[in-house]
Design goal:
The structure holds four protein chains of four kinds.
Chain B: H1 3-23, H2 27-52, H3 58-88
Helix pairs in contact in B: 1-2, 2-3
Chain C: H1 7-21, H2 31-54, E1 68-77, E2 81-89, H3 91-114, H4 121-140, H5 144-162, H6 169-200, H7 205-213, H8 219-236, H9 245-248, H10 254-263, H11 265-275, H12 277-282, H13 284-307, H14 311-331, H15 335-363, H16 379-393, H17 399-414, H18 416-441, H19 448-453, H20 459-480, H21 484-489, H22 507-527, H23 532-540, H24 542-549, H25 554-584, H26 586-628, H27 633-652
Antiparallel strand pairs in C: 1-2
Chain D: H1 3-19, H2 26-50, E1 64-72, E2 77-83, H3 87-104, H4 112-131, H5 135-144, H6 146-156, H7 161-187, H8 197-203, H9 209-226, H10 235-242, H11 245-270, H12 272-298, H13 303-323, H14 327-358, H15 369-372, H16 374-387, H17 394-406, H18 411-436, H19 452-470, H20 473-489
Antiparallel strand pairs in D: 1-2
Helix pairs in contact in D: 1-2, 1-4, 2-3, 2-4, 3-4, 3-11, 3-14, 3-19, 4-5, 4-6, 4-11, 5-7, 6-7, 7-9, 7-10, 8-11, 9-11, 9-12, 10-11, 10-13, 11-12, 11-13, 11-14, 12-13, 12-18, 13-14, 13-17, 13-18, 14-16, 14-17, 14-19, 14-20, 16-18, 16-19, 17-19
Classes of the chains: A mainly alpha, B mainly alpha, C mainly alpha, D mainly alpha.
């Protein structure tokens, strides 16, 4: 069961991620992104991070992905579907990706025999406590950043009266 | 399932994101790829948390923060995209070359 | 009364502030009465002290030479250093208090009439009070430092009063001249104070006296201090060569001149020497200097008075001359005599000035050539001024006679040579004073128009005149009677300083009466008729007369000094702006430029080739690299990730 | 938070608040600036109330109201503050002058917001310099005064403001560089490794004489520019002439004191051997400052320039007092700093008043104003007399004490310096005569007398002038114990003087 869940979720996540970077239609990309993120959320769940599972879906899937969709609809153009959506640097990028993954792999190998020793427990309460104790300051800072981002976004995307 | 499995998935996800970020012409695509990379990192954090320090929750909390920052980044980035589109009438990154030497 | 002696300077000081800050300015200001009332109180207190001291009913402090010595620390610093403020009341102080308050009171009453129409009456009375307060402070200060402080305040108030009619250029200039000249002298005083404190560590007169009595002050130091103080006194008491401010100071209102000349400012110098007499007597050289300064001043001032036609200037020179007498008296150990002369002189000089003021008030001119025959129009003034003239000229048995005789007596004891000059000067005095009187009051009117407008002064001006006239007549005799004044001043000659010359008993009074008679007679003969004889005489002696009229060219000398310092100032400023400033601004630039030149030399011959090569390569590389920079953000990202990937993998996998 | 930190940084809060006020609301900006300076002044009075003058130790000064927090641990830098009898009067003077000058600053009409921002920032630096007991902090505040001053002169100044500002900036900056080098040298000196002034005062005996001399020169170059001591004084007349009135006031009243204060606090206390080596030259510089400064003042036709040069002359008295290395001289010097601050502040304000009305400062352009503007004339005459050292007014006692202190040690130079008093009197009286006396110049027939706002700024200074002249003990009681201990601190080194 565990294996089935993991492999299916992983493959969904990876395949839809490939879709994000490779598909021509940006709208489809955005949908794929949502799918990928949802799969990653599932992975979170399989790792016992129940709060993050919910958070991922709420913030990413229903927030960011939807936002992307909106923007795509705002800024997308039909004609672009015909032109390639990937630039001419892709071979180099591929090499970089390979090197990066090679680097990762060297370290990941050390954890080939690491198994989860305990059962997963609900995390929400613990996260809540941590957020308001040890991480109180970063927590507040994050909220500040969000506000700033919000204001910034509004400011950027506002249509000037004069124009 | 070992930790390696999860790490592998997260590694591949990251590389895909990186590839996308480097090759997509569409600015929105770049942003989406970056989101993928964020997710890879998140997955990494949670996996380590679960397998190496199951009694603690710091990984989860930091992931939460990253989600927050990523959301902010997405908002700002998309706003920028909209603005750029409005002003330059394009969303292709190669068309922005104000930094040209 | 005695223990509250400190009130005497404080009351007029406060009064002056009240007058200055309160009430409304104008002709009808009631403030003058406040000033007079305050001064009246001070006079009352002072005269009580004076008469009690005179009659011996005020006891000296046990074993001391003073009646009262109060002090409290005003400034304390360091381990144990302090400057006290306090009062020291002794015989001379009591005398001066009496004289100053009396003259000031009379002058203030007199000013009611004289300044009747002035629009800044309030300010005038405030200044007068302040002037008197400073002088009174000077008189009873127990510490030389406070004395110096009051000394300066006297200077500044005289500045304000001389320049009272400041809209006219004359007073404005004269007041500045007075202040600067006395300030120049004050520098000497200042240095004296520094030296004194450096060695004695105190400014307190009583402590200093005992300090010096114990012989702790080296003679050289005493000499230096004495000379410093003497310079201060020369400036304040208008001795040669710093008398130049006094004739100009006549630009102030005449009552002010009376105050300055009779009681307050100019006697301060004499009083300073008297107050610090123990320092002078500790260094005999300084005594000689005091005597010579006094003698020169007395003589030269008297000669200058001969040719002056401005009534106030004649009086000014006569003051200078009389102050010279006092200085001379001090210099020949005639302490008592000098103070005695100071007292009597205050009465008749105040009277002379107030009388002159009365005349000027009536005829609106200072020039005696336009007066003449005024006795018919102004009998009171003529009578009182006549009394004063006779007194100062030395008519036997009047006040001036006694004090002048006392000084001459002491002079003879020390040096008969000096005495001859002094007696001759007395003759000159008799001459120029009589000349002044004759020209002003006797003879025929020379300017009918002015004569016809002349009128006798109002009562407020007459009362002071009569009061002073009475004092001029009798004060000297009374004080001289039974050694009253001598007893009051209570001066003990230092041992071994008695003069060795004894004159025959008839010589001194005889000579004095002789020169008096000759002086008065000559003046009457020359000036009672028309001025022609005098003019002819002047024509014959034109060089001498010119010299006298130019005040022996002392003014030119000091003006030259001022010009010189102006030039010096300009030179300094030129140096400052053209050289020093240039060094630090342009100079740096020059240095840098020189360095650059050296650099350039090295560059062009040694480094240049190499540098050029490097430069070319860099440039080419730059052009090449520039092509890489296409402004493509994504490309940058590509390079960055490539680098990071390679390096991270490489570094971490070692 | 300690009282000293409050006094120092209160103006900063005001400055920040002003940043948030829209620049059109000029009245609000002015009001809050004046209120801030007033509040600072009041807080500094609390310092006075809580200060115990008798608290002195044996040797190193005992600081009060101390605050000490670790700041940069790696370099042993502390946020250390404290005051003693030397700094307290100057701090109060600073806050008072800032308050009064801010009242006068209402006459500034352009870019009010920026003006008061820089103004308040300047106050932070000035107060901080006098509070800091850590050399690093001291230097920081020292430099903090530089930038606001540069802008205050450069933006709101007269016709040659840019030149003046640059000149001021360069002079002080070059000086500061030397001072920084000296600070670093002291930090790396044997047994040191600290910026703590008090500790440095203790350990300096282990330093070689040559080292102390070199370090002294560094400090002296930095400080003498601010004093300003000959020959680094040429920036002063220009800066004064070009600066707007309130800035001139602060420049003369407070900034110059930073140099003198530094001389006593650092050069003398930390590097006594260097100071001792320099004394013979120091007295000559004092003499030159006095006489040469006065002579230069006499040559001026511009009133502001004349007063600027008279400042050089008056700071010469401070130097003279310091050269005595005795309780008398030091007391005189400190007293002179305060009195000069009050008197010259008032003088600059008064000249500013006249300039605001007549738009000229040329002495010979006036004449007979005494009848036209009696109150103004009275204040001016009073202040001039105070400046030329009339007894009963502030300048006299301090001058006298400086001379009194210096005389036993430097007889010749002191006597020569007395000439400075005469020259000062000469040029002030000449100015009074030409401006106020004589017949009225008809050009100024409708010149209005001083108004309430100006009187509010100048009046307190005039009152203080009289108060400190009549009762100098007010200041002396605070300074004396500290200063006496200071004079005794290195008595072994300076023994030969006395």
């Amino acid at each position: 069961m565990e294996h089935i869940v993991f492999y299916s979720l992983s493959s969904v996540a990876l395949i839809s991620a490939l879709g994000v970077v490779l598909m021509r239609n940006v709208l489809h990309c955005a949908l794929m992104l949502g799918l990928s993120l949802m799969a990653v959320a599932g992975l979170f769940g399989s790792l016992g991070a129940d709060f993050l599972f919910a958070g991922q879906i709420v913030v990413y899937v229903t927030g960011v992905a939807v936002l992307v969709l909106f923007v795509v609809m705002l800024a997308g153009r039909e004609s672009e579907l015909n032109s390639p959506q990937t630039n001419d640097k892709w071979p180099l990028a591929l090499v970089i990706g390979a090197i990066t993954f090679g680097g990762f792999w060297r370290f990941f190998g050390a954890y080939a025999d690491t198994y989860a020793t305990t059962d997963a427990e609900p995390t929400t309460r613990g996260i809540g406590i941590l957020l308001l104790s040890d991480y109180a300051l970063p927590f507040e800072l994050i909220s500040l950043i969000l506000i700033a981002a919000l204001i910034g976004a509004i400011h950027f995307s506002r249509v000037e009266e004069s124009q | 399932m070992t930790l390696l499995h999860y790490l592998t998935v997260s590694g591949i996800l990251f590389v895909i994101g990186l590839f996308g970020a480097l090759t997509r012409r569409n600015t929105i695509g770049i942003l989406m790829s970056i989101e993928l990379m964020f997710n890879a990192a998140n997955l990494n954090l949670i996996a380590f948390n679960r397998f190496l320090y199951p009694e603690r929750l710091d990984g989860n909390v930091i992931t939460l923060f990253i989600i927050g920052v990523a959301a902010a980044e997405a908002v700002v980035g998309l706003a920028l995209v909209v603005t750029i589109y409005r002003n330059l009438n394009t969303i292709y990154s190669e068309d922005f070359n104000l930094l040209k030497g | 009364m005695l223990e509250h002696a400190y009130l005497i300077p404080i009351i007029p000081f406060v009064t002056s502030l009240v007058i200055l800050l309160g009430g409304k300015e104008g002709k009808d200001s009631k403030m003058p009465y406040l000033g007079i009332a305050a001064m009246g109180w001070c006079f009352l207190q002072s005269s009580v002290l004076f008469f009690r001291a005179l009659s011996g009913r005020m006891p000296l402090e046990a074993g001391k030479e003073f009646f009262l010595h109060q002090r409290f620390p005003w400034l304390e610093w360091g381990e144990n250093l302090r400057i006290n403020v306090g009062v020291l009341v002794d015989g001379p102080a009591v005398t001066l208090l009496f004289v100053v308050t009396l003259v000031s009171l009379l002058v203030q009453i007199y000013s009611l009439g004289y300044m009747h129409d002035d629009k800044r009456k309030k300010r005038y009375y405030a200044y007068l009070s302040f002037f008197t307060a400073s002088m009174l402070g000077l008189v009873i200060a127990s510490s030389i430092f406070i004395l110096f402080a009051c000394w300066e305040l006297v200077g500044v108030s005289s500045y304000l009063l001389i320049g009272f009619w400041f809209e006219k250029p004359g007073p404005a200039y004269a007041s500045k001249k007075a202040f600067i000249t006395t300030k120049l002298a004050d520098c000497g005083f200042y240095v004296g104070l520094l030296i004194l404190f450096c060695y004695a560590g105190t400014f307190d007169l009583v402590s200093l006296k005992s300090y010096i009595a114990q012989g702790l002050l080296p003679v050289e130091v005493a000499k230096a201090v004495g000379i410093g103080f003497l310079i201060g006194a020369i400036g304040k008491s208008a001795q040669i060569p710093l008398f130049i401010w006094l004739p100009d100071a006549m630009e102030g209102p005449t009552p002010v001149s009376a105050l300055i000349h009779a009681a307050t400012m100019v006697v301060a110098g004499i009083y300073l020497v008297a107050r610090t007499y123990f320092i002078f007597t500790a260094a005999p050289t300084t005594m000689g200097a005091v005597a010579w300064v006094g003698l020169f001043t007395a003589f030269f001032a008297a000669t200058m008075a001969i040719t002056a036609y401005d009534i106030k200037k004649v009086l000014a020179y006569s003051t200078v001359s009389q102050l010279g007498y006092m200085m001379l008296g001090l210099g020949v150990y005639g302490y008592t005599a000098a103070l005695f002369h100071l007292t009597t002189h205050a009465f008749f000089k105040a009277l002379l000035f107030l009388g002159a003021g009365s005349v000027i008030h009536a005829v609106h001119t200072n020039d005696m050539r336009e007066m003449g025959g005024l006795y018919k129009r102004m009998p009171t003034t003529a009578a009182t001024v006549g009394i004063a003239t006779l007194t100062i000229a030395g008519l036997p048995l009047l006040s001036g006679w006694w004090s002048k005789e006392a000084i001459l007596h002491d002079v003879y004891a020390v040096s008969p040579g000096m005495w001859v000059v002094a007696v001759f000067t007395a003759g000159l005095t008799a001459f120029y004073m009589s000349r002044m009187y004759v020209l002003t009051f006797l003879g025929a009117p020379r300017n009918e128009e002015k004569h016809s407008h002349a009128h006798e002064s109002p009562l407020t001006m007459k009362i002071p005149l009569w009061t002073l006239a009475v004092l001029s007549l009798f004060a000297g005799g009374i004080l001289h009677y039974n050694g009253l004044f001598e007893h009051l001043v209570h001066f003990k000659l230092p041992e071994g300083s008695h003069g060795s010359h004894h004159a025959p008993a008839y010589l001194l009074p005889g000579a004095a009466i002789f020169v008096f008679a000759v002086g008065v007679g000559l003046a009457y003969k020359l000036y009672s008729g028309s001025l022609e004889t005098a003019q002819q005489l002047r024509g014959k002696l034109s060089i001498a007369a010119e010299t006298l009229e130019q005040r022996y060219y002392f003014d030119d000398f000091f003006l030259g000094l001022v010009k010189l310092s102006d030039k010096l100032a300009t030179a300094c400023y030129w140096i400052d702006s053209r050289i020093i400033d240039a060094i630090f601004i342009d100079g740096w630039a020059l240095v840098l430029r020189a360095l650059a030149a050296v650099n350039d030399f090295i560059d062009s011959f040694i480094v240049d080739g190499a540098v050029d090569g490097v430069g070319t390569i860099t440039q080419d590389a730059g052009w090449g690299l520039r092509k890489l920079v296409r402004g493509q953000v994504q490309e940058y990202l590509l390079y960055v990730s490539l680098a990071v990937a390679v390096f991270a993998t490489f570094m971490l996998s070692r | 938070m300690g009282l000293l930190t409050t006094v120092t940084f209160l103006p900063l809060i005001g400055a920040i608040i002003i940043l948030f006020i829209p620049k059109e609301k000029v009245a609000v900006i002015r009001g809050s600036a004046i209120f801030t300076t007033f509040a600072t002044f009041v807080v500094s009075l609390f310092l006075y109330a809580g200060f115990d003058p008798s608290l002195v130790g044996d040797g190193v000064p005992v600081m009060q109201f101390t605050e000490r927090y670790e700041w940069i641990a790696t370099f042993n830098v502390f946020y250390a503050m404290g005051i003693d009898g030397l700094s307290l009067p100057i701090i109060i003077l600073t806050t008072l002058i800032c308050f009064l000058a801010s009242i006068y600053s209402v006459s500034i009409k352009e870019r009010v917001k920026e003006f008061f921002f820089w103004y308040l920032l300047l106050e932070v630096g000035m107060v901080g310099v006098f509070c800091a007991t850590d050399l690093f902090l001291f230097y920081l505040f020292w430099e903090l005064t530089l930038v606001p001053m540069y802008f205050l002169i450069g933006v709101w100044g007269g016709p040659r403001k840019e030149y003046a500002a640059i000149k001021f900036f360069l002079f002080t900056l070059v000086g500061s560089v030397f001072m920084l080098l000296a600070i670093i040298a002291v930090y790396f000196a044997p047994n040191s490794g600290t910026f703590d002034m008090l500790k440095l005062m203790e350990i300096n005996s282990s330093w070689s004489r040559n080292f102390q001399i070199v370090a002294f020169i560094g400090f002296y170059l930095g400080l003498s520019v601010k004093i300003p001591a000959f020959p680094f004084h040429t920036w002063l007349p220009l800066a004064h002439v070009e600066a707007p009135t309130p800035v001139s006031v602060i420049l003369a009243s407070v900034l110059l004191k930073m140099g003198c204060y530094g001389l006593l606090r650092i050069c003398y206390s930390i590097l006594p051997a260097g100071f001792e080596w320099f004394l013979p030259y120091f007295i000559i510089i004092a003499f030159i400052n006095i006489v040469y400064g006065a002579l230069c003042a006499m040559a001026q036709t511009d009133m502001k320039k004349m007063i600027a040069y008279s400042s050089i002359n008056h700071m010469g008295y401070c130097l003279l007092g310091m050269a005595a290395v005795s309780s008398t001289g030091f007391n005189g010097a400190v007293l002179q700093m305060i009195n000069h601050g009050i008197i010259t502040g008032a003088l600059f304000l008064l000249v500013g008043v006249l300039y605001d009305r007549a738009h000229t400062r040329d002495i010979s352009a006036f004449g007979g104003l005494g009848a036209k503007v009696p109150v103004y004339a009275a204040l001016m005459v009073l202040t001039c007399f105070a400046s030329l050292g009339l007894p009963g007014l502030a300048g006299f006692v301090s001058e006298f004490m400086c001379f009194l202190g210096a005389f036993p040690v430097w007889k010749m130079w002191t006597i020569l310096s007395v000439a400075g008093i005469l020259i000062t009197a000469a040029f002030f009286l000449r100015m009074i005569q030409k401006v106020f006396l004589g017949p009225l110049n008809e050009k100024w027939a409708d010149l209005p007398d001083i108004n309430t706002r100006e009187l509010l700024a100048i009046g307190p200074l005039a009152v203080l002038t009289v108060l400190f002249g009549v009762w100098p003990k007010l200041i002396l009681d605070i300074t004396n114990p500290t200063v006496t201990a200071l004079a005794e601190m290195h008595s072994t080194i300076f023994k030969y003087l006395h």
